[in-house]
Automatic annotation (TrEMBL):
Gene Ontology biological process: exocytosis; Golgi to plasma membrane transport; intracellular protein transport; vesicle tethering involved in exocytosis
Keyword annotations of the record: Exocytosis, Transport
Residues covered by the Exocyst complex subunit EXOC6/Sec15 C-terminal domain: 424-772
General function of this protein: Component of the exocyst complex involved in the docking of exocytic vesicles with fusion sites on the plasma membrane.
Domain Exocyst complex component EXOC6/Sec15 N-terminal positions: 57-226
Pfam families found in the cross-reference section: EXOC6_Sec15_N (PF20651), Sec15_C (PF04091)
Protein name per its UniProtKB record: Exocyst complex component
Family, similarity comment: Belongs to the SEC15 family.
UniProt organism field: Anolis carolinensis
Entry's Gene Ontology cellular component terms: exocyst; plasma membrane
This protein's record includes keyword Transport: yes
Length: 854
């Protein structure tokens, strides 16, 4: 039973649990607001047909609720009926109240229409007032923006671009953020970049105009800067001279004669006063800033800096200025023709770099010192190349000197602005050599003109004034001449003082170039001496040599030239003193360069002496050409030939002019003339065209030689000892004596002995003259001796035969002496026909031969 009871008990428990589950589900359905799907799903998740039981349970629950509702309705029914009854009573009152309320509302509406209208007006007014207040507030917020934008437009119109950019910054940073929600602000914001670009373009256009302006005004700027530098230098020079005078330094002017110190001080004070007056007359000292408006550069630089594009501006400015520098450095093709061309060229360059220096110092970062130094080095190389080229075309020393002065002012001006100019001064030393060359060419013309205008005669002076005038120009001192009474003559010709003056003028001209080169007095003195040496050794020497070689210069003029060169040589020491004085060098200073006038004038004098000898010989030849001897005359005329007497008279008069020459020159000329005359006369006798000479012609010729010996013995030029001059005719004399006396035995016996009477007679000459004199036994043809006449004479006259045989023996002996002077190779194997009596005499004199045919 217990076992049977347990299943039932378990079944009961299960049924009870199921009821509890259904109750729970129903509770959830009634009270919970959860989705029913989950709850209902739990019913179907249990055993099969569980929903049937759930429905039954649900129906039971519904019946219970219906019973409760019915109980509640029954409980409240009487109260409901009472309430309905009261409600019906109230209905009538409610209808009345409704009518009353409706009427009251109608009347209220009628009465409130005006109030409503006024209220609406008030509302509208309040709305407008609120809107106005809002608008005012917004306008107060927008007005500063509009005012700033209007200010921006005004600044753009008046070209205040830098201020306009600042205004843009304020608009962007302060004002636009306040009104960024408005459309007009967006339009303004979009317009600002366009305005910036416009400002950049306008400022760049202004910069281009500025660059064009300074390119046009650079020459004016440079001219002003160079003028100021020149005035400052002149003022400093005057002050330095005053200081030198105060310290007692000597100043030499005009041939090195020192001026009194008080006169120097007074002159320099006057110079300072004049300088101050000139400065007083000037309105004001102009600078580059006064001549050019630099505001476009500053404005453009500030604008690009504000825009953050300063590097672009710097690159553009530097690029454009480099282009302008190349244009400025390009000279005109005819610049070398006038000094104005050089001045304009230098002014433009100075103006360019003065502007760059100003930009360097008033701006920050636009250009740098490294940039200007690079630009200057480039320009300096170009300037030096241009000056080298164009200065080489200059042939006028005055133009070269003005060019030098311009270069000095140009260098000093730029040096004042901090640019290095040492290379320019080095260039000046090159131009100095060219200047000296142009001076030498100019002075060569002056010297030639002086020589052409000279009369080559001593300078006549008729009174003391004329004498002092000459002495003031040329340092000449002669106590003997001073003792003579007027009128008198100075030994030199007019060209000597003129040459001396021109040499001094050359030194002055050379000194002008050496000034302002920043060199010491010693260096300037050395330069002057070197240039003067060139003048003396090259130019003056060449002019003298050309003068001496001119064919129209006669002997008297050559003599005067020698005298002139002697005095010019003596004046060289005065030229050295002159250079020392004008350069203010101490007399004790040892110079490396000395004047070479001594050798110059000696060379010219030697050339003149040689030309004298040549022309004198030429004149002798001209007289000899007038000789007209009758070589076949039987008897002489008894007097010397006319041409020879004229020649001797000419020589006498010529040698009288030689009295002013140095003794050795006159003696050498006289000896040379006599020797040439002797040689020419000898050649006349030995002329190949002269085939025969009679004894009468020889005697006439002897008379002419006697006159020559008499002339030589008359001592035409003092200084010869004994018969020295007559020795010039000794060859002729001995030869003529040999033929006049016919002293062949003595000649042959004494030949070759130091004490021979006819020592100067050459066998070849004696043989040639003997043949011309008519000896029938000898003929010489191409080095061979022929004796045909005596070989085939066959004369029956024994006396004549004996005489001819004696002449033949003498002739053969002379031929033997003649052969002594021939080389043995001259005698080639040929037939030689000789007498047996002289065969043994001639054979040893001849070269070995292969055969002889007798």
């Amino acid at each position: 039973m217990a076992a049977n009871a347990s299943p039932n008990a378990d079944g009961f428990c299960v049924e009870e649990n199921k009821d509890n589950v259904y109750e729970t589900v129903l509770g959830e359905i009634k009270y919970l607001e959860l989705p029913l799907g989950i709850t209902l799903g739990s019913v179907y998740d249990d055993q099969p047909n569980a929903h049937q039981k759930f429905i039954e349970k649900l129906d039971a629950c519904i019946r219970n609720h219906d019973r409760e509702i019915e109980k509640m309705c029954n409980f409240h029914h009487q109260g409901f009926v009472d309430a309905i009854t009261e409600l019906l009573k109230v209905r009538a009152d409610a209808e009345k109240l409704k009518v009353q309320v409706t009427d009251t509302n109608r009347r209220l509406q009628d009465a409130g229409k005006e109030v409503i209208a006024q209220t609406e007006d008030i509302i509208q007014s309040r709305i407008q007032q609120r809107n106005i207040t809002t608008v005012v507030e917004k306008l107060q917020l927008c007005l500063p923006v509009l005012e700033m934008y209007s200010k921006l437009k005004e600044q753009m119109n008046v070209k205040r671009y830098y201020s306009a950019l600042k205004t843009m910054e304020q608009l962007e940073n302060i004002y636009f953020p306040r009104v960024s929600q408005y459309r007009f602000c967006q339009l303004m914001i979009e317009n600002l970049p366009k305005l910036r670009e416009e400002i950049k373009e306008i400022s760049m256009s202004d910069l281009k105009d500025f660059l064009e302006s300074i390119r046009k005004h650079s020459d004016k700027i440079g001219e002003t800067a160079m003028k100021q530098a020149q005035q400052q230098k002149a003022f400093n020079t005057v002050l330095q001279k005053q200081n030198n005078v105060r310290y007692g330094k000597n100043k030499y002017i005009n041939d090195g004669i020192p001026e009194p110190r008080n006169e120097i001080v007074s002159k320099q004070n006057l110079a300072v006063e004049d300088e101050e007056e000139e400065e007083g007359h000037e309105d004001e000292v102009l600078t580059a800033h006064d001549l050019v408006d630099f505001s476009p550069v500053y404005r453009c630089l500030h604008i690009y800096s504000v825009l953050g594009d300063a590097e672009t501006f710097e690159n553009y400015y530097r690029k454009q200025r480099r282009k302008q520098a190349r244009l400025v450095l390009q000279p005109q093709s005819n610049m070398h023709e006038t000094v104005e061309g050089y001045r304009r060229y230098f002014s433009q360059i100075v103006g360019f770099f003065v502007v760059e220096d100003h930009i360097l110092h008033v701006t920050q970062g636009l250009i740098t010192r490294a940039y200007t130094d690079e630009l200057w080095n480039m320009a300096l190389s170009k300037i030096i190349a241009v000056l080298r080229t164009h200065s080489s075309y200059c042939t006028d020393p005055d133009l070269v000197l003005e060019l030098k002065n311009l270069i000095v002012v140009f260098a000093d001006t730029l040096q004042g602005y901090g640019f290095p100019v040492n290379r320019l001064f080095d260039l000046l030393f090159e131009i100095r050599d060219q200047y000296n060359e142009t001076l030498l060419k100019k002075w060569a013309v002056l010297f030639r003109d002086i020589f052409e205008a000279d009369n080559y005669s001593p300078i006549p002076v008729t009174n003391e004034e004329e004498y002092k005038n000459v002495i003031s120009k040329f340092p000449y001192q002669d106590p003997e001449l001073d003792k003579q009474c007027f009128p008198k003559k100075l030994p030199m010709s007019q060209s000597v003082p003129q040459i001396y003056i021109q040499v001094k003028e050359f030194i002055y001209a050379s000194l002008k170039f050496s000034e302002s080169l920043h060199r010491s007095s010693t260096e300037i003195d050395d330069m002057l001496r070197k240039s003067t040496n060139l003048l003396l050794t090259r130019t003056l020497s060449s002019c003298l040599q050309n003068l001496i070689k001119k064919p129209h210069i006669v002997l008297t003029e050559l003599v005067q030239i020698i005298i002139n060169t002697t005095h010019l040589e003596q004046a060289c020491k005065y030229l050295e003193d002159f250079i020392t004085n004008i350069t203010n060098i101490s007399q004790e200073t040892l110079h490396t360069a000395r004047l070479y006038g001594l050798s110059t004038f000696k060379d010219a004098r030697h050339a003149a002496e040689g030309e004298i000898y040549t022309k004198l010989n030429q004149k002798i030849d001209e007289f000899i050409q007038l000789a007209d001897y009758d070589w076949t005359m039987v008897e002489p005329d008894g007097r010397a030939s006319g041409y020879l007497m004229d020649l001797i008279n000419f020589l006498r008069s010529t040698f009288q002019v030689f009295t002013h020459l140095p003794g050795k020159v006159a003696q050498t000329a006289c000896m040379s003339a006599c020797q040439h005359l002797s040689t020419t006369l000898m050649q006349m006798l030995l002329d190949n065209e002269l085939k025969q000479i009679s004894m009468g012609a020889i005697q006439q010729f002897n008379l002419d030689v006697i006159q020559c010996e008499l002339f030589a013995g008359s001592e035409p030029v003092p200084g010869f000892h004994g018969e020295t001059l007559q020795l010039a005719f000794i060859d002729l004399r001995q030869l003529l004596d040999l033929f006049m006396v016919w002293d062949w035995s003595t000649y042959l016996a004494d030949y070759g002995q130091p004490g021979s009477k006819y020592l100067r007679v050459n066998p070849s000459i004696a043989l040639a003259l003997l043949e011309k004199a008519g000896c029938p036994f000898c003929r010489v043809h191409r080095g061979y001796v022929y004796l045909p006449d005596i070989l085939h004479s066959g004369s029956p006259d024994k006396e004549a035969s004996s005489q001819k045989k004696g002449s033949l023996d003498s002739c053969v002996k002379i031929k033997g002496l003649y052969f002594d002077h021939w080389p043995t190779q001259v005698l080639v194997p040929q037939m030689l026909v000789l007498f047996p009596s002289v065969f043994d005499f001639l054979i040893p004199k001849m070269a070995p031969v292969s055969s002889y045919e007798l």
